[in-house]
Amino acid sequence: MRDKNKRTLMAFVFILVSVIGLNCFTLTYAATEKPAYKVLFISSYHAGFDTLPAQIEGMKRVFDEANISLDIDYMDTKRVDTEENYDNYFKFLKFRLDQDLKYDVILVGDDNGLQFLMDHRENLVPDIPIVFFCINDLERATLANNMSNVTGIVEGISLKANLDLAVKLFPNAKKIYGIVDNSPTGKGDASSFMLAADSYSDYQFELLNASNYTLESFKQKLASLNASDIVFYMSYFEDSTGNNYDIDEATAIISETVKAPVFRMSIGGVGNGLLGGNMVSYEEQGRLAANMAVSIIKGENPNDIHMIQESPNKVIFDYEIMTRYGLKIDDLPKGSIILNKPIDYFQLYKNILMPAIGILIVLMFFIAILIVDNMKLKAKDKMLYENNLELAALNEEMIASEEELRDQYDRLTDSQKSLYESEERYRVLAFTDTLTGLSNRTALMLYLDGFVIDESKKWALLYIDIDNFKYINDSSGHEVGDSILRQIGNRLRLFENKYAFLSRLGGDEFVMVVEREGVSNEEENLHSANFFVKEVMAQIEKVIEVQGLLFYLTCSVGISNYPEDGKDKAMLLRKADMAMYQAKFAGRSRFLYFDEQMELAFSQKLTIQNQIRFALSSNQFLLYYQPQYDLRTNEMIGSEALIRWRDGSGSFIPPSVFIPIAEEQGLIQMIGSWVYEEAANHARSWFEKTGKRLNISVNVSALELSDEQFADSFIEIINRYGLEPEQVAVEITESILIVAKDKAIAHLLRLKEKGIKVHLDDFGAGYSSLNYMISLPLDVVKIDRQFITDMIVDTRYEDMVRFIIDISHCYGLQVIAEGVETQEQLEKLRSMNCDIIQGYHYAKPMPFDALIEFGQMKG
Ligand code: C2E
Ligand code: CA
Ligand code: CA
Predict the structure, then answer these.
(1) What is the spatial distance between Cα 302 and Cα 526, in angstroms, rounded to a whole number?
(2) Atom of ligand 1 nearest to the CA of 624
(3) H-type helices in 433-477, by residue range?
(4) Among the ranges 185-189, 450-454, 854-858, which has the highest mean pLDDT value?
(5) Which end of the chain has fewer surrounding CB within 10 Å, N or C?
(6) How far, in Å, CA of 582 to CA of 556, rounded?
(7) Cα 736 to averaged position of ligand 3 atoms, centre (Å)
(8) Ligand 1 in contact with 242 (CB < 6 A)?
(9) Could you identify the atom of ligand 1 that is nearest to the CA of residue 704?
């Protein structure tokens, strides 16, 4: 019996330990293959619109699983509701589809986009199946659904469902208020609200029209409402003075002033002070639409897929607000989503607690048996007292049982201890990032809660993002990416101490919270802060080795300060994030402090993206040429094509501003194609006018070289215009080695094989290594302008330039010096045997017509 007990106990402990062990250490890696199918999602609005993240999240959940690649276009019709905007998007989409972009299914979100596709389908995408979702106008949805190859999902806000819920939860209310305004949405809301009033005759309905009040008077009005009534927040975008409010701002105003429970039927606000409501689930809309697209790709006929009319709505409530009104979770319909619910530790640790409780019960059972045993023994003891002979024997037995009892007690304490340990391990896991072992987002948020309370200290929040990390992941694989992130995590640990908190938010994003000491002297303080950030960046930028490969990474850092930039943790994070974004746009590999201007710049970025599309379709791009001068023959030897953008107002937007945005937004391929076509056309007309061949080099962005078709399309253009390959050169930078090394080199080899030349641009800037000279198929090295400037004032740079020229010649490469602005620089370069110069000293970039004149003058 005793042995059996022991074995059962051991088995339980074993099972407990293995369950915990498995949960902790199972990590799976999904193999990634190249998606075979492509879908395009056309959104009626812009990326910052409230419903978009959820829609995309819903689609991505399905498409990622099915390994289907998703492109997204934004029509931006909420902010720019003009014919011209629709026309531009039409041209833009047509242009791209003509570039042989093939989609298997098109998804379209919201009414404006669907109407657009219904109007233009014949001319744009006659044969591609269409799935629509989030459509409010049932009539429009039905018309679309009746078209061939079209199906989708309707979006219905159910005012009735919400009113039913509201009066059920608050049966004593007398009045129901509807907050609306004079915007088109607001007017629609007002009329459906008043229509509904008829069905609820026990209640008085009243509209509160924000457009009739100033902010202050509206706040007073809201504050005067009775706490026992009900408020519906439907639309509040403007006030009587023409001020605009977004949903967050309106929510803040309402939740600060209204004492009554506030219901909301659409996204935004719940979780930030509103009570809740029965609302459209945009994620669910996106997910269902994506499922339809997948069925179509798998071969189902879209005409056989029924339109979904029952909008997939969800009841969402805020727990904190619920308790304020004495509501319990059971009062809500089953399946409701509850936000801000305190963590239920039993649910969280159920997996450990259940087996542990099981073990405890079993142990108690054993103990009970032993206690009973013990009692029996004592009874015998009494009997034996009378019988001296038996006494000794029985006594012995009793001691043995007591020992066993103690043994069992010991084991009980042991297993209690192991229960505590596993609990501790779970707690650690909940706050730890499994990849790097650093704190995770949850831990960061808790930490920020702590310091936001302590107002006596000043802090800085550093938002760190690795540059171009996505390309490393895509080109070298996730395993390499993970290892890099771990190494970076370890390096950042060097800074973790009493004054600095370190965490990884996910992906390639790290956040540090640093106490700022010695705040009396602002200037000194800034100096030491800058120094600290530079130290952090220097750690990340040290070379990283993985599986014998060397990676030279940079990072961009955005910084927000507490309390200067705000006292709210979410706001501080957002501002640091925004500053980081600006640092990326300023050219990456740098840090920036948040300032109010950034908020503006952030929205400007979105505008630039739209403007680039417009510029492409309305000939706002121009191609300039900067002549190059041969130091041996003293003649013009060729020219570099440089893009210029003259916007509607006639001002020039520099390429350093829009090229990075175009790269980020996937528009660079289109810009590139335009440049090559235009340059080839010019080279052709030069030949027709002069009978001579003009040497032209064009700049190629690293991202273009990751495109499968690049070399083929490039060669096709050259052939089509009847150019000699030898008169054409591509200028690339070392960044191609980060973005798409193997593919890029294959493209370059193919161009070279045809006779097209390859120039390595900006040599000397960044991490230029002599290695590139050998490993890349090059003809020319272009020395970066900074070296030519520095060479005059610092002899070390002069030596460096001489060295680059000599070593290039040694490898049979020609050298072009860029940015030559003075005669002194020219002479110095000539004495070093430099082959060619380019710069303002010889000529500035000029339009093609001017180049012809320049050529006649110099030739
Ligand atoms: P880059 O390829 O290094 O181009 C040389 C830049 O130096 C040009 O600036 C040119 O106007 C400028 N420059 C030339 N000589 C002098 C000089 O003596 N002094 C000074 N201070 N500057 C001089 P730009 O045109 O503003 O172009 C900036 C960058 O934008 C280019 O750098 C290139 O990376 C990119 N870019 C320009 N056109 C294209 C294009 O068609 N496609 C792509 N992908 N990138 C382009
Ligand atoms: Ca260049
Ligand atoms: Ca350059």
Answers:
(1) 61
(2) 25
(3) 441-453, 469-476
(4) 854-858
(5) N
(6) 9
(7) 14
(8) no
(9) 44
Question: pLDDT tens digit string along 649-696?
Answer: 888 989 988 898 888 778 899 999 999 999 999 999 999 999 999 999
769 neighbors 543 (Cβ within 8 angstroms): no
Q: How many angstroms does the Cα of residue 785 sit away from the middle of ligand 3?
A: 7
- Separation of alpha carbons 699 and 641, rounded Å: 7
Return d(Cα 541, Cα 57) in angstroms, integer. Answer: 33
- Residues ≥6 apart with Cβ < 8 Å to 195: none
The answer to whether the beta carbons of residues 211 and 186 sit under 8 Å apart is: yes
- Give the whole-angstrom CA distance, residue 518 versus residue 753: 63
Ligand located closest to 640 CA? 2
Closest C-alpha to ligand 1, atom 20: 819
Rg for the chain (alpha carbons), in Å? 35
pLDDT in tens, 165-182: 999 999 999 999 999 998
- Of the chain, the end-to-end C-alpha distance in Å amounts to 109
**Which ligand ends up closest to the CA of 671?**
1
Closest ligand 1 atom to Cα of 731: 2
SS3 271: coil
Helical ranges in 543-649 per DSSP H:
569-585, 596-617
Strand partners, 558: 463, 592
**335 vs 14, 314, 720, CA distance in Å?**
37, 8, 63
pLDDT digits (tens, 9 = 90+) for 524-583: 667 678 888 999 999 999 999 998 888 889 999 999 998 889 888 888 999 999 999 888
Average pLDDT rounded to a whole number, residues 126-138: 90
CA atoms of 544 and 557, how far apart (whole Å):
19
Cβ 701 under 6 angstroms from ligand 1: yes
Q: Is the pLDDT of residue 271 over 90?
A: no
Q: How many Å lie between the centroid of ligand 3 and the Cα of residue 180?
A: 56
Question: 699 C-alpha to center of ligand 1: Å?
Answer: 9
Can you read off the two tokens belonging to residue 723? 């150019």
The residue nearest atom 41 of ligand 1, judged by CA position, is 643
pLDDT of residue 492: 93
Please name which ligand lies nearest the alpha carbon of 763.
3
| Residue nearest atom 27 of ligand 1, based on CA coordinates | 655
Strand order in the sheet with 262-264: 204-209, 175-180, 230-233, 262-264, 276-280, 313-318, 337-339
Indicate if ligand 1 lies below 6 Å from the C-beta of 627.
no
Average pLDDT for residues 142-162, to the nearest whole number?
89
What are the C-alpha distances in Å from 299 to residues 153, 286, 694, 750?
A: 20, 20, 53, 38
Burial annotation 507-540 (CB, 10 A radius, 16+ → b, else e)? ebbbbbbbbbeeeeeeeebeeebeebbeebbebb
Q: Is 611 in the pocket of ligand 1 (CB under 6 A)?
A: no
CB atoms within 10 A of CB 260: 20
Which ligand 1 atom is at minimum distance from the Cα of 623? 41
Q: State residue 21's pLDDT score.
A: 36
CA–CA distances in Å: residue 612 to residues 546, 658, 662: 38, 8, 8
* pLDDT tens readout for residues 502-521: 999 988 999 999 987 654 56
For residue 784, the CA-to-ligand 3 centroid distance in Å is 6
Query: Is residue 20 pLDDT above 50, yes or no?
Result: no
Kindly state the helix (H) or strand (E) to which residue 513 belongs, with its residue range: strand 509-515
Pocket lining: 652 vs ligand 1, CB cutoff 6 Å: no
Model confidence pTM above 0.85:
no
- Give the SS3 label for residue 340: coil
